Amino acid sequence: MTRAGADRASSTSTEPGPGVERLLLVRHPKPAVAPGTCYGSTDVGVDPDDARALLARLVATLPRHARLASSPLRRCADLAHALADHGWPAPRLDARLAEMHFGDWEGRPWDDIPRAQVDAWSADVARYVPPGGESVQMLAARATRAVLDLVAEMDGALIIVTHAGVIQTVTRTLSGAPLEGFGGTRVEYGQVVSLRRAGRAFVRE
Length: 205
Fold this sequence. Notes:
Number of helices: 6
Number of strands: 8
Structural class: alpha/beta
Shape: globular
């Protein structure tokens, strides 16, 4: 997608249609990667102990009547399928819910990425495109569209197992907040961010 295409995508309506009243955005378990690695859309595994502990907590706390969707990356999809094994519906996998694609940065230690590129991203976090990757604006456009499509098709409560970047951008776009503050609110591994419909928006509970 070109930057112009991203601009057009980001200008589409972010108002939810009739359907889901509550969103529960779940970040995946701790990934099995070296600390300080940029892994983005790379399909990495998870720490098995962390995954088991998170599953037990979610089984005990998530609403049983909720529908289920997930990023197809295995650190999310494996958790979603495990929830389905405990009584939730089979998850809807949607590639638009995957983490930001960092292009040439994928799989590299953050300290090895050229400082000039990282500085350029910091200076324009919403629109800067890492070489071969996508911008936060592009991520927000596709992820928000995915969530709105799911919201319109389903009803009641919806659990989405996804990534920090998706959670951070979607919570901003659905509440009308600017993307420039992306990353300012940390989302921990396994954290559940709950949003409730408020008129034409979704706001954090």
